[in-house]
């Protein structure tokens, strides 16, 4: 059974069981508590807490998805038989529709009947409960709280499914209690399904909400959150010894030079996939956050292919990734040119200093954290490369020490930024908008109001199905994500640009009125559908009155007083972010 067949079988299994199939969200999450999307449940987090209504948004209390995921914590582990940075997570979710019994029944039925895995290959585990209140787990409940054994799951597995007691393991919080993504959120006991001793499916039963102080309280609505790694599942279904022998990796591994070690071929194959998906979802190489992760992957790939003799057309590598995954993730096809171009630019930039850096590395007699960070800072050689190529010289170099040097550097840089801003730091930081001085504040304010005009113009040109999916504004540009299922034509982009600049020339007033959320919704004001607004909101509008306004949106500001202050709006780029989501980048002149 191919990986493509597994994907189709999984989604169809849950579709016929009245689950709404939801497309994968972007690797760039709208959850500020995480850097990248690390689990299938992240796009559903606010449905588990009750902030959003699954029945309203999906037409069902139950959903299923195959989610693109990326975990930075595993970068140093990649190269063995099982660790990855990028992976696909199959999951089914319920927000009050069903709980443990159905989730366990579905899991066992899909594994044994639809995938044809023999029952005698299967074992499971459940949460054994807290033996005392003295747990040292980071998920420890508040003082005096004890989470009981999951007797219900044990009973379902043994009495209803028929798993013998000797095949039901019982573990503590470290293995069978799932914590929230971030400092707080839904959590609960888990039940894991194993095939031949390998964990393939984790069923999480959200019974509690973990607060920032780590105390737990019972959730009003019980939820199911499951996750099954496609790579591991393909391995057991296809009867191969490691994930790298599956059809998800073999076409890519065979493309790499034969003189690379098996470990390095695994690392680079993982990185090839990760690079393509990160760029496709809008990540750009940089020295911070997700951009830094992407840059590390690209530099590792470029370095080892350089050392192997540069016998491979490196851009062709990403054509292979797109060919392999593009049928299920069409955004790869849509962003093909961008993936190739971003990689080529970063490769060219890095290759310029790579050879000099490698020569300098050869000159160093020993590598400690300080000398390693100096090489990184001067030549862009990341920790992984320094550790791998340093050999005996890098024996005492550790990730922890290197990261400590990196942190010291960031503190020094931050002190410089504070000095630059006159000792006052940022004068504006709403998350979406940041400004360090009055000039920057003026620029981001112009861009912020320009974003409202772009939103309205997009709906005028493309139709009322266009909705805001996210935004980010710097002093250089605005980035606006919106729902739309195809690439905009050059004519459509030109129309949007003409419309917004006409509104700028009209010198329309920009005002706001404060009212209840219910009253604001009745005005027809646009708002971010995933945002949880307070009971009282501001509605900013462009025009003489709220009733006749050309544009009106829920917003906290700041804004210009009239559109003429914005200046000429210029659209820089339109691109795909994920399935059904486009991104517009624009600036003001």
TrEMBL record:
SMART domains listed in its UniProt record: tRNA_SAD
Family matches, as Pfam families: tRNA-synt_2c (PF01411), tRNA_SAD (PF07973)
GO cellular component labels: cytosol
KW Zinc-finger (keyword) present: no
Domain Alanyl-transfer RNA synthetases family profile span(s) in chain numbering: 1-589
Keyword flag tRNA-binding: yes
Signal peptide positions on this chain: none
InterPro entries linked to this entry: aa-tRNA-synth_II/BPL/LPL (IPR045864), Ala-tRNA-lgiase_IIc (IPR002318), Ala-tRNA-ligase_IIc_anticod-bd (IPR018162), Ala-tRNA-synth_IIc_core (IPR018165), Ala-tRNA-synth_IIc_N (IPR018164), Ala-tRNA_ligase (IPR050058), Thr/Ala-tRNA-synth_IIc_edit (IPR018163), tRNA_SAD (IPR012947)
Annotated EC: 6.1.1.7
Keywords: Aminoacyl-tRNA synthetase, ATP-binding, Ligase, Nucleotide-binding, Protein biosynthesis, RNA-binding, tRNA-binding
GO biological-process terms attached to the record: alanyl-tRNA aminoacylation
GO MF term list: alanine-tRNA ligase activity; aminoacyl-tRNA deacylase activity; ATP binding; tRNA binding
Family: Belongs to the class-II aminoacyl-tRNA synthetase family.
UniProt-recorded name of the protein: alanine--tRNA ligase
Organism of origin: Candidatus Jorgensenbacteria bacterium GW2011_GWA1_48_11
Lineage: Bacteria, Candidatus Joergenseniibacteriota
């Amino acid at each position: 059974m191919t990986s493509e067949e597994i994907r189709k079988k999984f989604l169809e299994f849950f579709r016929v069981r009245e689950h709404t199939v939801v497309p994968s969200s972007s690797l760039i999450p709208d959850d500020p508590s995480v850097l990248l999307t690390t689990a299938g449940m992240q796009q559903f987090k606010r449905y588990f807490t009750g902030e959003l209504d699954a029945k309203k948004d999906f037409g069902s209390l139950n959903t299923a998805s195959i989610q693109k995921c990326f975990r930075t914590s595993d970068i140093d582990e990649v190269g063995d038989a099982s660790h990855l940075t990028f992976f696909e997570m199959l999951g089914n979710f319920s927000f009050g529709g069903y709980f443990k019994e159905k989730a366990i029944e579905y899991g066992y039925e899909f594994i044994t009947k639809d995938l044809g895995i023999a029952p005698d290959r299967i074992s499971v585990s459940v949460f054994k409960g807290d033996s005392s209140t003295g747990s040292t787990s980071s998920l420890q409940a508040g003082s005096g709280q004890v989470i009981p054994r999951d007797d219900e799951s044990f009973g379902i597995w043994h009495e209803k499914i028929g798993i013998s007691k000797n095949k039901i393991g019982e573990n503590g919080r470290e293995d069978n209690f799932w914590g929230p993504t971030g400092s707080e959120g839904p959590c609960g006991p888990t039940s894991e399904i194993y095939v031949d001793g390998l964990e393939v499916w984790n069923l999480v039963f959200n019974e509690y909400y973990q607060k920032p102080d780590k105390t737990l309280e019972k959730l009003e609505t019980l939820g199911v959150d499951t996750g099954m790694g496609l790579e591991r599942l393909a391995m057991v279904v296809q009867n191969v010894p490691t994930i790298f022998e599956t059809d998800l990796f073999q076409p890519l591994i065979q493309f790499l030079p034969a003189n690379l070690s098996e470990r390095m071929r695994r690392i680079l194959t993982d990185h090839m996939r990760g690079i393509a998906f990160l760029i496709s979802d809008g990540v750009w190489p940089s020295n911070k956050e997700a951009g830094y992760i992407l840059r590390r992957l690209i530099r590792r790939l470029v370095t080892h292919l350089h050392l192997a003799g540069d016998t491979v057309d490196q851009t062709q590598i990403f054509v292979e990734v797109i060919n392999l995954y593009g049928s299920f993730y069409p955004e790869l096809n849509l962003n093909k040119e961008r993936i190739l171009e971003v990689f080529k630019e970063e490769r060219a930039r890095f290759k310029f200093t790579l050879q000099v850096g490698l020569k300098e590395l050869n000159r160093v007699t020993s590598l400690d954290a300080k000398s390693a960070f100096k090489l990184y800072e001067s030549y862009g050689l990341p920790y992984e490369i320094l550790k791998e190529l340093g050999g005996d010289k890098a024996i005492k170099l550790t990730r922890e020490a290197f990261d400590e040097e990196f942190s010291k550097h960031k503190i020094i840089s931050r002190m410089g930024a504070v000095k630059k801003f006159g000792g006052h730091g940022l004068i504006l930081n709403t998350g979406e908008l940041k400004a360090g001085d009055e000039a920057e504040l003026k620029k981001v304010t112009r861009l912020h109001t320009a974003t409202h005009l772009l939103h309205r113009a997009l709906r005028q040109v493309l139709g009322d199905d266009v909705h805001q999916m996210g935004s980010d504004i710097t002093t250089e540009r605005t980035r606006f994500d919106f729902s739309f299922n195809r690439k905009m034509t050059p004519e459509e982009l030109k129309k949007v640009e003409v419309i917004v600049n006409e509104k700028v020339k009209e010198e329309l007033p920009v005002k706001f009125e404060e009212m209840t959320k219910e009253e604001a919704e009745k005005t027809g004001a646009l708002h971010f559908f995933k945002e949880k607004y307070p009971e009282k909101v501001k509605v900013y509008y462009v025009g003489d009155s709220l009733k006749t306004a050309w544009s009106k949106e829920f917003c906290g500001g700041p804004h210009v007083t009239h559109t003429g202050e914005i200046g000429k709006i210029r659209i820089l780029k339109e691109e795909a972010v994920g399935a059904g989501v486009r991104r517009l980048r624009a600036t003001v002149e």
